[in-house]
Amino acid sequence: MKVGLFIPCYINQLFPQVAIATLELLEKLNIDVYYPNEQTCCGQPLGNSGYEEDSKGACRLFVENFKEYDYIVGPSGSCIYHVKKHFDILEQTSEVIKVRNNAFELCEFIVKILGKTDIGASFPYKVGLHKSCHGLRGLHLGSCSETMDSHYSTEEDLLNNVKGLELMSLTRKDECCGFGGTFSVFEEAISVKMGKDRIQDHLDNGVEVITGADHSCLMHLEGLLNRNEEPLKVMHIAEILNSTI
């Protein structure tokens, strides 16, 4: 299969180590990976802020960059969700439909498309998993506590097979961190309080490293951790799955 690697703009600018870990991980899994050099933002920030019409240029460029690939894989549940669900604002040509259908978040791609849960990683730490809203309730990467469904989680399936990793149980396993993109700008006080609550849950349950599949949420939590000098580290799940400590 021919896979196009989609690296969201904030990861490209602020967390290049996540992009590198994602590429290395896919290559370890013997995937033929390509990186379209002309790729830019998927248009999510504009779309989420109500400027859908202004986001169409970014959406069309995304399709143009990724239309030739069998799959599009990215380390961001929220961006992939935007591609799959909100590219409905474009004319639904065969190319747009193909891109929407074949875009996958990294963990979902590994578990559901490649059929793998053990990829030979090792990471001897106590880890807390933050389940981001877009991935959980949008892409259905796991079951939600409010729906009372049978439990499943693509992220947990992968983490539970990492040698030495102890996945810690949280009191409120799938609560929002309060980031919400521009929500954290316009509703700063609420956003900060929600983020602090999520961090406290990890602290109360003995977590050493917080991970997740959406670095926008992790960025929010990491900012609060650094400001309050809390003894927790933040790592994207791609970094852990690529680790052989």
SSE topology:
Layout: E1 2-5, H1 9-14, H2 16-28, E2 32-34, H3 44-48, H4 52-66, E3 71-74, H5 77-86, H6 94-101, E4 103-105, H7 106-113, E5 126-129, H8 133-138, H9 154-159, E6 166-167, H10 183-186, H11 188-204, E7 209-212, H12 215-227, E8 233-236, H13 237-241
Parallel strand pairs: 1-2, 1-3, 3-4, 5-6, 5-7, 7-8
Helix pairs in contact: 11-12
Fraction in helix: 40-55%
Reading off the top of the CATH hierarchy, the class of the largest domain is best stated as: Alpha Beta
Shape: globular
Count of beta strands: 8
Our Rg estimate from Cα atoms comes to: 17 Å
How are the strands of the largest sheet arranged? 2-1-3-4
Number of domains: 2
Nearest-integer average pLDDT = 94
- The end-to-end distance, rounded to whole angstroms, is 29 Å
Assign the CATH architecture of the largest domain.
3-Layer(aba) Sandwich
CATH topology of the largest domain: Rossmann fold
- One letter per element, helices H and strands E, the order comes to EHHEHHEHHEHEHHEHHEHEH
Poorly predicted tracts of residues: none
Strand count, sense and barrel status of the largest sheet are: 4 strands, parallel
Q: Assess the beta-strand content as a share of residues.
A: 5-15%
Short description:
The chain has 245 residues and is of the alpha/beta class. It has helices at 9-14, 16-28, 44-48, 52-66, 77-86, 94-101, 106-113, 133-138, 154-159, 183-186, 188-204, 215-227, 237-241, and strands at 2-5, 32-34, 71-74, 103-105, 126-129, 166-167, 209-212, 233-236.
